[in-house]
Write a structure and sequence with these properties.
Layout lengths: L4 H26 L4 H32 L1 H6 L4 H11 L1
Length: about 90
Amino acid sequence: MDLQHEDRDDIINRLKRVEGQLRGLQAMIDDSRDCNDVLTQFAAANRALSRAGFRFFSATMEECRRNPDLADAQGYSPDALEKMFLRLG
């Protein structure tokens, strides 16, 4: 399902930030940074990735609302959407 342009851009930007956080984590580990600092960065990256996933799901739900026939054709029944959502948790 195609997302609205602004939704797609927002999600891509979030993923790019996560990508930067992951590179930062790699550098922190290479530099033997303090465990607490590294774990704090891991937690931040995990939260950011989760938020990007929830944003993607939210945008998908909005597209299903806007195009119910397309959602049905792609198998996005309420049960299927619930299963997808639960995978994020």
